[in-house]
Amino acid sequence: MAQITLNSTGVASSGALVLQSNGTTTAVTVSTGQVATLVNDAVVNGLTVGRGAGAVATNTAVGASALAANQAGGTNNTAIGNAALDANTTGDANTAVGDDALGANTTASNNTAVGYQAGYSNTTGTELTVVGYLALDANTTGIRNSAFGSGSLGGNTTGNENTAVGRNSMRLNTTGSNNVAIGHEALDTNSTASNNTAVGYQAGFSNVTGLSNVFVGESAGRSSTASGNTFVGQDAGFSVTSGANNTILGGYNGNQGSLDIRTASNHIVLSDGDGNPRGFFDGSGFMYVRTVTRRSTSVFSLDSTTGTTNAMGLFASGTGSSGMVMFTNPNGDVGSITISGSATTYATSSDYRLKNTIAPMTGALAKVAQLKPVTYKWNVDGSNSQGFIAHELAEVCPEAVVGAKDAVDADGNPKYQGIDTSFLVATLTAAIQEQQAIIESLKARLDAANL
């Protein structure tokens, strides 16, 4: 049985039902063959349906206290749910769907909130897009934020232009701005940090104040608290804490393969999916391949396995003469390694245009007489060899020796001398010439004496 109960007087006329309020104002008119027209908001079983306070023609309000405080200046709003947009006064073009959605919004415009208390605390923040239970519920004046997922950007208050997609993504952010978090609990504890990007489950989870990080992959950068890191890969940089300005590509977590950069900065690490570091640059720019140990003072340290594996291979696509390595300094090219179809040439600069005060070498034979060639065994493996002792050769031909006798580094480790015997070629050649001159002179004397 249908029942209508109103505090009014019902008058039926010509097949129409007319309900009057206060005897003069028509509240409901139902004519034959037409629908009911309600002049004011209606309450159906406790549910308010209408335009909300201010009776603005472009507003829609469905739910108890929806748009309850709206004034004439607040237009083009849609509020569906208990107390949805209930504090709105002059804000325009807002859409709130859910209990208390955009509940504190007063003058802000162009916001969309869907979910229980979605955007609940927002007062003047504009251009918000909120979908999810308690998403952006603490936002007050932050603008242009987008939150999709339960609790996403839940603690944000005044942070601007953040995008959070996933349950509890950027959950604790308060004032951080320009962040992007995609994934369950991505950038979960980020509070005041800005300009971070995290994609993946718990990516950047522990970051609180670190700036300008990029974390891509499940748990990438999960423990990081510093700035300027870029980690790409599942668990990439997972264990890095205070290390800053590092780049990791692959599954390396920051402490694998005897390489620990958890608190180090400015490293670049290339690893495989299992986290094994295959090559990296350290914080000083030195490069390592298949090793984590710097070789002496080398800028580039490369390791090979014992056997047939070469540490490096250089390949020329043709069989003609090809330059393989060029050595250069600010003065220009000073040496090269070239190959032909069957041989390799190691060249050092020797052009006459690079030299001056050129004169024939003299005294070479006397110098050779001072050389002390020796045989010896190497300490490392006991193998036999022959040659010179570096500091002894330096006394005769210093150009052929690199380093100083008994030198050590800052840690007291030996800095061994080396020699380049190619510098002896000119001396030996001149000595042979001097010796040949002597031989020719002696031969002439013997010939003159008919001996």
Q: Any overview of this molecule?
A:
Mean pLDDT is 90; it is low at 1-20. Helix content is 9%, strand content 25%. It has helices spanning 364-370, 390-396, 424-448; strands spanning 9-13, 16-21, 25-30, 37-38, 42-44, 47-50, 60-62, 78-80, 95-97, 112-114, 129-131, 146-148, 163-165, 180-182, 197-199, 214-216, 230-232, 247-249, 255-256, 259-260, 268-271, 277-281, 287-289, 300-302, 322-329, 332-339, 344-348, 374-377, 384-387, 401-402, 418-419. By secondary structure, it is mainly β. It has an 18-stranded mixed β-sheet, with no helix packed on it. A four-stranded antiparallel β-sheet has the order 1-2-3-4, with no helix packed on it. The radius of gyration is 43 Å and the shape is rod-shaped. Among the domains are: 1-39, no CATH class; 323-354, no CATH class; 364-447, Orthogonal Bundle (Arc Repressor Mutant, subunit A). Helix 1 packs across helix 3.
Output the keywords.
451 residues, mainly beta, Arc Repressor Mutant, subunit A, 18-stranded mixed β-sheet, four-stranded antiparallel β-sheet, 31 strands, 9% helix, rod-shaped, disordered N terminus
